[in-house]
Each structure stands twice: as structure tokens, then as C-alpha cells.
């Protein structure tokens, strides 16, 4: 049977290529999912490791209780080579060309420790030496051997006054650029002597993070146990790898959920591929009906014929799955190469991370789905007696759907939607979110299973309605296509079902994404209400003008103020108090209230948990909570400020970035403007901060993830459209004599092609329309369930992603036409006389 199987595969290579593409796309989908999530995990782990180097042991204490005595004691432990302390001293570094605020640490003796990478020169070894990030050195127009001034603002013990001290330092090294505005301070290195002196000036002599390097050959576990005994109670001791994984988990904690979600979609894609495979093998068996019947007449058993079909499916499944895995790996590698070329400073892997699951899971999925899907065709090949199979093809392949299946389907559909409605009602009760979400997911699964089972009644009904509309347009091809689209309801349903499932998923995700994006934009606007803030003891008019002239800056407002003690019912804290004009506040604060009662102040959530009275100094004032203000910040009117005793005068320039401008470029321009205008002055360099980059980053991540998800789900649609082509091919096989007779009666080749094209469009349109309706409903319900409790989303928040809806319809129509091309070629290339002749 092997030779027979090989011969049959060779004869039908065109059909097998079509189903092979479906299998490869499905397995490629799964492979890409594993590659993507593996790469995210590896990148997160590398980024976390880069923040501490490669230590053997890490000691952390959130209460900052670690002291120099602890460092000295740990250094004396057997096996410990070095104990590195992260001092994180902030200092202003200036030249004649600019000024910048940097975070400085001492260099590590052991190359495994520290969080900076030396690109040129050497690390500081003596007082008066410094190593700068390359971008900072360029901004300050200084190179190796150049001089910079390090400025310290030393405050008196009572905080009433400060002294400005300067120190000349020589640049001895250039470091790889760290993160900038919005993601932390640029990191630099200074000598241990300078760092110690600056720490004493700041009064900061305790630490929260120590990293240890262990002697080669020493037992790291034993050293870790000794460290645990030596440090104070409550301090955490772990390995460097454990620390990095914990940090990575803090921003990839949902990666497993993300992987599970995408693999669920991959399972749907493979299920759709299974439908296409089943249809394709049905086509192949239909074309070989007489051949297989003849084999059985000459002695082949039913088992041998079944084995031949299944062997063919096994070979095809293995070959196509391997091709799909290669496709997924190739796409992943191409994506990583592009990212590594265009994105700097992100430690992404250079090659796709491949583990056993990345290869084994898609391979098994592709082979199993192919063999199982082909089992129906194998049964079909032996379900008819050999002599009966010698009759015309259509009498062999047609079948009637049972009456029980659609009844069960409608029951499941109604029950599923009833459960989802109950979940929506339940979600309105506080504390029921998890239960309501679980009920909604269960209802969705039950209802989609019901829709698939009831599709035998839904799809033909929609096909008849669309067919009547097409027939009324006139013309023989349209009328024939309308009739043919409903001649075999079971086959039409199986094809349309594959497409409607894929379209429903894409539409559901697009709808949910549209609702989530609208809601997220509101949340981000509230959380990052200020694009950029330039804050310092003074912000000179020159700096203000330079910032206003930066491309992409839409508006600026300069606030003056100071600090004051603010007391609420629960605690007292020092707060930044800024004087604001209600008329201009809305230009730079997206959450500014439309009206501002002159008798109230505006405060952030860290100062007040809710609206109510607060005491500023000795004055009691009503406070209103405003989201998006900087932490521990209060806004007052000029009249209110006159009655308050503010200390430590300061200024803050708030900047709004224009719509469409790149926040990263604008922020860099603002930093350059601040640096260049504070150089050589007696003013302390202002701190540049703000949420523009974070907001843009969150939005970009959301858009990227949704694009990946929708793009991957689009694979299911592509697979389903292959099924449309296969169904048309089966239609050509069944109607070969009929088409020949129509040709003999005067139907032209062009008209026959048009008939099949219209039929393909009808099949695709039916699946697309039903899928769109289901996808919108599922997307609305899912959006309300997942976002309603946390964001207050209601039915009024429902949106329709018209762009996606129209795109799906256009793609369906075009794909229906394209799917008819190959079947049409096969239908018209056979002369009518040859087609009418007996086989």
C-alpha cells in the first residue's frame, strides 16, 4: 500500500499543497507563539540581570537598614570575594556646554558586579575621576581626559539653607548608555572615595541592595547560608539568578497567561485547519472513488484502503508540520533581527530561543490533527460497496445531517448566551468579578460550540437570503451560483463554519481591543496627566524659552511654589505646593477640573485618599483629589498661597507635547535645552521628569500585543479560506457532467469562471457575516465583563471597530474570488465531450 499511497500523493500534489499550507500555517502559529513568549522571557531576564551584573548572591532590604558594618562583616565571610554596595548618589554634572543630573555609584573590582558597561577608557580609581554615559558626554561636549564640574547641594541639618559645593573631575571612561527620561536616571561611576564623601553630605549611609561575588570553586549555597546568618532579621538573601527572575517576573508575570491565551487561539486555528483538512481529503477521496472501488474489486481490503488514506495523512502531517515549524522559527528570527537593528539598549536574544516544547508541541499538534481530520475521509473511502462506488460521484459523497445535532446546537447556543447575560448581571455586584468572568468564559465556550452544531440550519438560511439577492442581479452565472451555494447544505456549512469561527475570533479581539484602548487612553491620561515637568530651585527664563522652542512642544506653564507640612486625618507629610492659575492649568494638566472653587486646593492621591479638609501649615483648607498630579503635590491659587508659610522655594515648568509628536524625541530635545541653558550658571540643574514616554510606551505595547494577537488570529481566517477553495474543488468534481452539459448548451468558459467566483464569494460572505455578528457580541460582552468593574465601563461604552469590520468583509470577498481561480481552471480545461464521457 505504500507504493499506492505514494502514487496517489504524487498524482494529487496540487490538492495536497493546499492542505499542507493549512497545516503549516497552524503549526507555524504555534511555533511563533512559543518563540515570542520565550523571547519575551529571555529579554526580561537579561534586562533584570543587567541591572545588577552577574552576582552569586544578592542581599535586599526594602527598609534600607543595611550599613557599612554589615558590608564589612559580609566581606570577612569565607568564600566571599567582594561585596558591592549600590549607593545611588545623585549629582549635577556640568561643563560649558551643558548640565545633567546623574546617578553615581562606585566601580566594582570584580567584573561580575555593578550595572554599567565600560565602552572606552577605564573606571575611576582615585578622587576627582569620573566615567560618564556616552550620550551624556556627547551632550556635555566632553571626551576622555576632559574636565567636568560635579555640583553638590548640601543642606543644613534643619533644612533651612543649603550650600553649593563644586568639585572638578576628570573623565577617564565612557559607559554604555543607560535609560533616560521616564525610565530612571543615567548611571555614571565615580571613585569610592568621592561616593563615600557625597553620601555623607547627603546623610545617606544605609543601603537596600548588596551583591556578592564568590571565590571560584567555593560552595555558593554554603556562602548563601552564611550570609543569611550574618545579616539582620527580615533581610532577604537569594542567588543572583533568583533575584533576576523575581525582577523579570514583576513585569512578565502575565507571560504565561499570555502564552495560554495565544495557544488557545492556536488551538482554534488548528481546529479550523482540521475542518479544511477533512474537506480536502473528502475532495481527494471523491476524486478517487472509482479507483478505490476498483482496488477493492481486485482484492484490496477495507483496512488496507483506510490505512492508505491515513498513511497519506500521516506523511502530509509530518512534512507540513516540519515546514510550519521552520516557518515559525524563520519569522521569529527575522523579527528578532529587525528589533536588534532598530532598538538599542534592549538585551533581546540574537537567535530565537528554542526548547523541546517549541518543536514537539506544534509537530504533534499538526500530525494528530491531520490524521484525525482525515479519518472521516478514510471511513468514506470504505463506507460504500465497491460496485455502488462505481456510480456517479455525487451519489457517494452527499450526506444528510441528522436532526438531533441542530436541536442540541440551539439548546447550547441559547444556554450559553443566557449564562453570559447572567455573568453580566453578576459583574455589577462588588466582589463577584472572578466568578462573573469565569461564568462569562464558560457561557462563551458553550455558545460557540452550540453555534457550530446549529450552523447546519444557520448557514443554509443565510446562504439562501444572499443567494436570492445575487440572483436578482440577473445573469446566468449569478443565478447558477445562487443555486449551487445551497445544493449541498452540509458541505457549505462545514466550509462556512471554519471561516465564521476565524472571523468571529478576529472581530471579538478587535472589538474588545477598541473598547480597551478607549478605556486605557482615559486611564493613561489620568495616570500620566503631565507630559514633561522641569523642576528645580529656579527655572530660568532662558530655560523656559529654550524648552518652548523645542519641536513638538505644544504649550508650557511655569509654576512657582515651595514646600509645606500637610496634615490629613491619618498622617502628616511634607508636600510640594505650587501656585496655579485655573485659567491656564488645563493647558498642561489633562485631568484639570473644568471649574476650580477658589476656596479649595487640588491634591494628589498620596496626600489625600478622598476629598476632604487638610491642614497646610496652620491653615485648614478643603482639598479636592485630582488624578495625575506628581506624588505629594498640591496646587493652590495665588490668594491661598499668600496666607501659607512656604519654605524651600522652587519652580516647575510643565510641558504639554503636541499630538502626533514623538514623545521620546521631544523629551530628548527638552533635556538638551535644559542642559545647554543651565551650563555655567549658579542655578542648580532642574530635574526633567514626566509621563509622556511611559504613556507612549504603554500605548505602543498595547498596540503591538493586539496587532500580534489579531495577526495570529488572521491565520485562522487564511486557513479557512483555503477551505473555500477546496470546497469549490469538490463542487467541480461533483458537477463535472453538469458543467460539461452547460458548456455544450452554450455556457462560455468566462461564464463558468464567473459562476464559480460568485459561488466562492457567497461562501466567504456567509461565513464572514455570521462571524462578524458573533464576534461583535462576544467582544462587547467580554469587554464589559473584563473592564466594567475596574474602569466603570457600561453599555454606553460599546464601540464597533468599523475599520476591522470593513476590512474583514473586503478580504472575504477578494478571497472568495481568489479561491475560485484554481477550481475554475480545472473546470474549463476539460472539453465538454470528454467530461460527458463515462469514466
Explain how this protein is built.
This protein folds into 4 domains: 1-52 and 255-397, no CATH class; 57-252, no CATH class; 457-528 and 693-839, no CATH class; 532-690, no CATH class. The chain is built from 26 helices and 20 strands. Strands 3-4-9-6-8-7 form a 6-stranded mixed beta barrel. It has a 6-stranded mixed beta barrel with strand order 13-14-18-15-17-16. A 4-stranded antiparallel sheet has the order 2-10-1-11. A hairpin with a 4-residue loop joins strand 13 (553-567) and strand 14. Mean pLDDT is 78; it is low at 179-184 and 392-401.
Brief sketch in words of this structure:
Helix content is 57%, strand content 16%. The protein is built from 26 helices and 20 strands.
Structure keywords:
membrane, 4 domains, ABC transporter permease, cell membrane, single chain, 57% helix, six-stranded mixed barrel
